[in-house]
Amino acid sequence: MIHVTVWNEFRHEKSSAKVAAIYPNGMHETIAAFLRAQPDIEARTATLDEPEHGLTQEVLDGTDVLIWWGHMAHGEVSDEIVERVYNRVMQGMGLVVLHSGHASKIFRKLMGTNTHKLRWREDGEMARLWVMDLAHPIAQGLEDHFDLPIEETYGEHFDIPKPDDLVFVSWVPGGEVFRSGCCWHRGLGRVFYFQPGHETCPSYHDKNVQLVITNAVRWAFRPRPIYQYVTDHTTALKDISLGKGE
Ligand code: ZN
């Protein structure tokens, strides 16, 4: 089983009737629900206002893949918890960062970019997501593109380091393009950023978006290392006296 924790700051749903109508139990519950329908995934949720943001060391130790949605309260996420999440990614926990999570403390720390900037506007446009890597595990089951009838527009330039894999590029009628699905390796962990999911758009109810997030969970899952690895001064593994010029 892949143990997933879906983290959501869970503020827009409480303060906006429009958002609550789309995600009555919070978008974390919508995301957890479609993941729970998979036979190989167990999903729990955590939210900002729980003690330790719901991300105790015990929860993180039991999490194989963490999903992150945040927007209006990035600054309220404690640095101690960010450090805890970061350390788990280094140990091999997968991280799937959604939409406005591009500006979260954890994503910026992992990317090493000091800014989190991108071009954006909210004009009620459709978005077309093109698959850049048809053989990539995250794109399995998709056609070569899919459309979302309404999404917030994100456009280049997106201040990220060059992705290890570029899985999606989005296009909108207004002319922008955006690297909307990107993979990186950090420590033993895998990180995927996926753009759809503005709070007033129903994107997490979309079957293609659900498929991408489900695929991303399986891609980001790493079986736990069963060995101890050395990252310190070491002695030779074999007798190397013959190689020393004697
Ligand atoms: Zn947004």
Under CATH at level 1, the class of the domain at 2-116 and 180-220 stands as Alpha Beta
- Assembly level: single chain
What is the CATH architecture term of the domain at 2-116 and 180-220? 3-Layer(aba) Sandwich
According to DSSP, the number of beta strands is 11
**Low-confidence parts:** none
Q: Remind me, CATH topology of the domain at 2-116 and 180-220?
A: Rossmann fold
Largest sheet: 9 strands, mixed
Could you tell me the strand content as a percent range? 25-35%
Number of helices: 7
Order of strands side by side in the largest beta sheet? 2-1-3-4-11-10-9-6-7
Order of helices and strands: EHHHEHEHEHEEEEEEEH
> For the CA atoms, what is the radius of gyration?
20 Å
- Average pLDDT over all residues: 95
Instruction: List each distinct ligand once.
Output: zinc ion
Q: Name the CATH superfamily assignment of the domain at 2-116 and 180-220.
A: Class I glutamine amidotransferase (GATase) domain
Gross geometry: globular
User: Helical proportion?
Assistant: 10-25%
Distance between the termini: 54 Å
Alpha-beta content class: alpha/beta
Commentary on this structure:
- The protein has 246 residues and is α/β, with parallel strands linked by helices.
- It is built from seven helices and eleven strands.
- It has a domain of 156 residues: Class I glutamine amidotransferase (GATase) domain (Rossmann fold).
- 24% of the residues lie in helices and 25% in strands.
- The strands form two sheets. A nine-stranded mixed sheet has the order 2-1-3-4-11-10-9-6-7. The chain has a two-stranded antiparallel ribbon with strand order 5-8.
- Helix 5 crosses helix 6.
- The longest helix has 14 residues.
- The termini are far apart.
- The mean pLDDT is 95.
- The site of zinc ion (ZN) has 4 residues, from loops.
